[in-house]
Known about the structure:
This protein is an alpha+beta fold. Helix content is 31%, strand content 36%. A 7-stranded antiparallel sheet has the order 1-2-3-7-6-5-4, with helices on both faces.
Amino acid sequence: MKKYLLILSILLLIVLGILFFRPQTKKSPSPTPSVPSFSESLPLNWQLVSSTDKSLKLEKSVTSGLKAEIVYKKTSSPDALTPAKYVDKLKAGARSTLPTLRYLTDKRNSTELGYTALLTGYYFNQGKKILINQRLFIQAEDVYTLTASYDQNSSEAEINSIFDSIASHYLPNR
């Protein structure tokens, strides 16, 4: 168990490092041909940066400040067979990686379609408050994670709209 938590913490640290500590360069990514209807439905200023069968990355173009990002990942883990414990371990790993992380909401639901966790919170990076919004969908060993990080210049409604669009395109039974 400690081995999985360590691996999960390292992966979370790598993803967060990539998301927040890379240089802000302006590049013009081209949309992936396999998802034209999805990329065309994005709100203004949002771009599809990368896409594979198991991951997706979106960024919001900004002139200054934090570049809002949304990341979708599909993973598998035998630990996900006990979804409540799995989500608790993910939260613990995130807190150990980001000591200033505070969760504001943690809503969970279990149905015949699977287990859902909706998490919101924030943390501080270089004195700036970064909002975080996560949706986790767990079906057996498959875990579908949507994570958004943004500042107060981005709309939570816009983030939720994009989450809904990703869920309808990439998640089974949604």
